[in-house]
Amino acid sequence: MPTQHTVIFANSQYMPEIKDGSIQLMVTSPPYPMIAMWDELFCKADPKIGQLWENIETNEVIVRQTYDLMHKYLAKVWTETHRVLCDGGIAAINIGDATRTINKKFQLFPNHSRITEVCEQIGFTALPYVLWKKPTNRPKYKGKGAFLGSGFLPPNAYVTLDCEFILLFRKGKLRKFKPHDPDRYESCFTKTQRDVWFSQIWDFKGARQTISELERRTAAYPDEVAQRLIRMFSIKGETVLDPFLGSGTTAKIALLNDRNSISYEADLNMQQIITDKLEKAKTNKPSNITITKRLQ
Ligand SMILES: C[S@@+](CC[C@H](N)C(=O)[O-])C[C@H]1O[C@@H](n2cnc3c(N)ncnc32)[C@H](O)[C@@H]1O
Predict the structure, then answer these.
(1) Which of 2, 66, 86, 205 has the highest CB neighbour number within 10 Å of its CB?
(2) Ligand 1 pocket member 247 (CB < 6 A)
(3) Ligand 1 centroid distance, CA of 221 (Å)
(4) What is the distance between the alpha carbons of residues 234 and 260, in angstroms, rounded to a whole number?
């Protein structure tokens, strides 16, 4: 049976198109709070963040308030996700922490721990997470690897953030299946896949990581991230949600793995790249693609 892929250009803080409990898996990567490339998005999305941002360099209280509001913005999406997931459904969130110097003070913004706290408050159960070792994260200075801080002298240097997180949460109890459920057995992974995918550290040495300039600008994750998560936590014929679709990676990989998908993206500039990706993927797997806009 052809799978169904729906992309909705709209704000995913509200997902009225999706019924309660109808999604088995969410795979996503949101804009990262306090990472410079997403400042403008947060300021435009919430005028209160925009106002605070104008005075961000004045005091620590404003920095804290801004950071809180950015996570409140994301929390609305996690709450909607909890509503639409089925009992036992899994939410997989790729997020990086941020380091930043504001008011001459260098500090860490631990986005992963904030999202974990928020998701637990919403009612999710936190599960063991993955650390994705990203070779590209190390800052470069004149073509060489560089560390932040004071060179070779203790104690004022900083550890470089080399890893991002793939946070995993479950809604409710474990999912139940009939004995020998054929779809479940058809979706099995190999021993090697199990050993690598369910290890805590993911290092894609050898896996293809090339992405286009536009994908780079939207901080696309490599196909391999979506591929592993979709194969680990869903079954053929089920539906995967991405509330922050970006360049369309999650929907493409769902299509190629015989899953349905429903995705949201706020930026209409992404329409062409998403359409091209899904149309190309469709040549290998017959599937129905619907792209709509919600005006609100
Ligand atoms: C980190 S990017 C996602 C990258 C994606 N994983 C990929 O592989 O291309 C986050 C995306 O979320 C979108 N976005 C931010 N807030 C949104 C919202 N409230 N509703 C829908 N999309 C949103 C941004 O426009 C951006 O494209």
Answers:
(1) 66
(2) yes
(3) 11
(4) 10
Q: Answer whether 94 contacts ligand 1 (Cβ < 6 A).
A: no
Q: Select from 244, 263, 292, 294 the residue to mutate for testing ligand 1; criterion: most ligand atoms less than 8 Å from CB.
A: 244
Q: Which atom of ligand 1 is nearest to the CA of 248?
A: 9
Using the atom order of ligand 1, give the atom closest to the CA of residue 94: 6
Ligand 1 neighbourhood includes 246 CB (under 6 angstroms):
yes
Average pLDDT over residues 86-92: 98
pLDDT at residue 140 greater than cutoff 80? no
The Cα 245–Cα 39 span in angstroms is 18
The token pair at 266 is 């706020």
Q: Per-residue pLDDT tens for 93-107?
A: 999 999 999 988 999
81 lines ligand 1 (CB under 6 A): no
More confident: 225 or 284? 225
Asked whether residue 21 carries a pLDDT value surpassing 90, the answer given is yes
Q: Is 89 in the pocket of ligand 1 (CB under 6 A)?
A: no
Atom 18 of ligand 1, nearest CA residue:
11
